[in-house]
Amino acid sequence: MIEPHDFILAHAQVVLADRIVPGWVAVSGGLIAEVGEGEAPGGIDCGGDFLIPGLIELHTDHLEPHVQPRPKVMWNLMSAVLAYDAQIAAAGITTVFDSLRVGAASDTDQMSRDVERLADTIEAARALDVLRADHLTHLRCEIATADVIAMAGRVLERCGVRLISLMDHTPGQRQFRDLEKMQIYFARHGYATQESFDALVAERLALHDEFAVENRRKLVSLAHAKGAAIASHDDDNVDHVAEAIIDRVSIAEFPTTIEAARASHAAGIKVLMGAPNLVRGGSHSGNVAAQALAEAGILDILSSDYVPASLLHAAFELPQLVPAIDFPQAIRLVTRNPAEATGLADRGEIAAGRRADLVRVATACGVPVVRTVWRQGRRVV
To answer: How far apart are CA 74 and CA 362, in angstroms?
Structure first.
């Protein structure tokens, strides 16, 4: 029986795990109490819009531009967190893994050095109940740095960590296997001359030789001890995947080649790609296209990466780009699949007993429009 203070969302296209049904969803005590087809008496009229599970975002770089909107400009951390949270929720994301970067690659890497204060700020906002989305912690660990282990340990003392990424941006491999493209990227970040770029490459190679192997081993042990899922990052060959298998990695973030993606998928490692890659029609850095992995049947999870709105946009567009993937399958890439990959068994699907994390979505000019967002039955947008 639905209590008077609970509610029904009626007249919706309800997107279940395997099909779409015209019907209704009853919410009680922050959970989905019942799902039905056809008309429902009373309730909130969704006007025939789609009703989907709240999106789950595992890897977003979007917090950093709020904290550091310009080079050398650091914003008030609470203000930055609240603005970031509002944009995340408005994009239909009800669970976000805040990607906190640990491991300073240089003395000027202020974002990494401020990570403890940022973690404290997110925890304070959570305690004050001023956040719209459910915020979990994802540590992006740069293994070829001197301080990554100490920094990761200090963050772990402050908050629970659900996901740890093993990142290595050493020149000549993974994301930066093409040094010419790396040079173009770093020219925008103060390394415009050949001399300065060569010095950067030499410095990064030395750091890798000194720290990468041991730091990776320690971080893997730390993750397993804390019960955090592990993600590999930018794998570009089968040797990288073999290492990931040994380390019991569960997510392959942004593999740069179809060979690495195929090997990860075959090993049961969930392949995560950027939604902007799919929406734009390819990688902005020349790596494998997300659509190619979808067509090959080896794309498991989408992430908004640097554009929060891209997550929902990509899910709506994917069935048009790859007809073999239907709409419920596409929605699973941004809901149930990331939930399963990180052990969140209470969300990611519209089904009785799951959290009432729900998004009402219309479309305009072929683009999804978020109308309303509920987290645990509470309207947040």
So the answer is: 37
CA dihedral angle for residue 99, residue 100, residue 103, residue 108, rounded to 10 degrees: 110
| Residue 29 sits in the same domain as residue 116 | no
Q: What is the tally of structural domains in the chain?
A: 2
**pLDDT tens digits, residue range 307-325?**
999 999 999 999 999 999 9
In this prediction, residue 107 carries a pLDDT of: 55
Asked if 293 contacts 271 with a C-beta cutoff of 8 angstroms, the reply is yes
Same domain? 171 vs 37 = no
Tokens of 379: 């309207």
Long-range contacts of 125-132 (CB under 8 A, 24+ apart): 125/78, 125/81, 125/82, 125/85, 130/82, 131/81, 131/82, 131/85, 132/85, 132/86, 132/88, 132/89, 132/373, 132/375, 132/380, 132/381
The size of the chain, in residues, is: 381
Return the structure tokens found at 266: 């075959």
Residues 44 and 26 in one domain: yes
What are 56-69's pLDDT values in tens digits? 999 998 898 999 89
Phi and psi at 191, nearest 5°, equal -120, 65
- What's the token pair of residue 180? 């010419």
Structural domain range at position 24: 1-53+347-381
In the chain, the N- to C-terminal Cα span, in Å, equals 27
In this structure, the answer to whether residues 13 and 73 fall within a common structural domain is no
Retrieve residue 316's tokens. 């709506």
| Same domain as 333, residue 213 | yes
Per-residue pLDDT of 251-293, as tens digits, reads 999 999 999 999 999 999 999 999 999 999 988 777 899 999 9
Same domain, 16 and 72: no
Whole-structure pTM over 0.70, yes or no?
Answer: yes
Assign residue 376 the CATH number of its domain: 2.30.40.10
